[in-house]
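[step 3/7] fold_predict: job queued, chain A
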Amino acid sequence: MLSDQTVRFVKDVPGLGHFCLYAFDLGRDVPLLHDWVNRPYAQYWMLQNTTVDDVRAAYARILASSHIQVFMAYLNGQPAFLLEVYDPSQDSLRDYYKAETGDYGMHILVAPTDKPVRRFTRHVFTVILDFIFSQFKAQRIVVEPDIRNEKIHRLNRNAGFEYQDIITLPHKTAHLAFCTPTSHAEALKLDHVIQEAARFSQHPNAQAIAHLQPEAWSTANRQLIKKAIAEFAHELLLTPLLLETDGDWGHYILTADTSGIAYRFDAQKLSLDHWNVREASLTKTDARGDAELNALQFIIEFKDSLHIAAEMLPTYLEEITSTVCARTFTLSGNAPISATLAHAGYQEIEHAMTAGHPCFVANNGRIGFDAIDYRAFAPEAASPIRLVWLAGHKSRAQYAGTAEVTYDRLIEQELDTATLDRFRAILKERGLSADDYLFMPVHPWQWLNKLSYIFSPDLANGYLVYLGEAPDHYYAQQSIRTLYNGSSPLKFYTKTALSILNMGFMRGLSPYYMGSTPAITEWICGLLDNDPYLREQGFLLLGEVATMGYRNLYYEPLGRTEAHNKMLATLWRESPWPHVEPGQRLLTMASLLHIDNNGTALLPELIRASGVDTATWIQRYLNVYLAPLIHCFYTYELAFMPHGENAILILENNLPVKLLMKDITEEIQLFRNDGSLPEKVKRVYTPTAEEVKLLCIFTDVFDCYFRFLSHILHEHAGFAEDDFWALVAETISQYQEANPHLQNKFIQYDLFAPEFTRSCLNRLQLKNNRQMVDLSDPNGNLQFVGTLTNPVAAYRKVPEAYNQPA
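[step 4/7] structure written:
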């Protein structure tokens, strides 16, 4: 039995956010509904001039009935509308028309607002009809709106309701109207045609480069050079020379390898050797005087200092060009401002991100996409994607799932009955048995650009069979090959092989590697799900519960790490929505570093919307993010890859209350192996030198995330760096004081050490931009240069327990 706190339905509306429907709760929802029904706009609800007790009594009677269900819907964590769904055959309405099997009635009350949103109520109708048709399996929806309510009549007709009769009810004269799945789909199709006609007035070939305008291009180049100077200087690849100081700011010059070229800029040196470069101050001069800022030219001018091998330079330049193009695209559109994003939906925030990985300079390469592909598949384009499905013969295809997610259960969830029947019919028509095949989705780009010809022998001989598209539409996440189901957000994420070069890796998926993924999920969830400390902190895992891979027998003898052997595999990850309660919303942690096109950061807007001070907000955030990571390291010697895109925050009243960690099988590292690991789990064990282990916090959290977060707070929220790092130190100290039994480990792996090794990510990419790291030995390629001063060292506390003999 689901509790009333369990989300019953989630619907993503692009540009608006996520609607979540929960069962109506008298204690939670009556005070809110009482306010709504007593407003003038709710006159047709017939509960005006009532008390809270009157409303509670009325809905207690409704909930006690056997034929009415009531739901409260939230948009991005805020109440949006009330929905009543009833069975007309058990309602008095049956006396006025002939009820049929599969009929359902509905009543809707939309929340009041002081800030009307264009087409909002039309979107509400789409959400409600999708909910009733999909969850109740309705064949027809009947409504009986008051004949005087012209607004609702327009909305009904736009949603596909067909008006038939006028009936006289005891309390009103009403229209009788019906909507079927077919009429609703036709109405949506017509609305889509109208909207698309207004949106697109040019040929796609022209649209592909429409964003490449001089002003946006110039800004994108300036911003990338600013980042390049900051990150290459941080990694000691470039050494700016200080000319003079002005308070905390210095005026610097950076001389290129190419004679006569210099860059000048103002910057602050912050903690962890972080360079805060003032964008507007950045200028370039050459032998002729002032020169334009050109990111490609910048890389060429410093190629010797950056130690880029000649054979790597063209590919790196292409990634730089693609990164600039992507930023130009986001600068050219109507991107939401941070004040709007502070209240936006999960996917609106995900698609608004513009910066990519904070450390890497070339972080949006996506080499392999053409200009039209970019608009179709890049996350910032926010275009819906339909997956292509193939049938793979079981002699070459392999499925792996957790105990709960069998192949049959997965397919029944991911494919509706009509689509499944269609796929089976395709096999039957070719004289093939569906029992001999596994159905698997692939990215449409992958199908057209790789699979359709590289796997042509298998397609020709029936080992692979093209089945077509499934109806659900997906959206690319910041991690590009992970796709979010926009049609049914409660369904799994789908992660597919995508053979494009992006940020130093070909983004394939190994069918061999995937085979052990569900087993690792079961192991790590078994280890952590019942940990009382993690449960208290709200730290949860999104399980990677199923995988499918297909072997190419022609390329397999060349080695399993060969890119051609990573072209056809799929992974399914749990949706975050079952963890979201009424009044809560999702937010990618990467967004805490977001700065909009006007130069306004999102994080201060979120803090402002929460109503608490900055220190309180940050402390709440550290409790759900940093404290669990420390606990996992010291208790289990387990490390995640906890960058912003791998972590999803759950906010309540705009305050962090939970954190969901994903990529929990591919990127985790276990530093301890006591011999008890199951065979399929052994690949997560990473033999690591003692002095390197703690870099999972120092590098991955402090240097690669907190360095940028503290900068945002310093520059955009007026929150001093020292105050931020003091809160980080306090979080660590509180954990250590509460766990004196781990004293020896705290000493052995000292988070308050004066300094730690500087691990350099760009040096990895510059050394080999086709495969930065060998995943079988993730620590073997790390690039270490010098040390960084630990910003929490000054705040060390020595608990009394530490003074006792070990």
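[step 5/7] annotate
Confidence is low (pLDDT under 50) at residues 800-806.
The two ends are 50 Å apart (CA to CA).
exit 0
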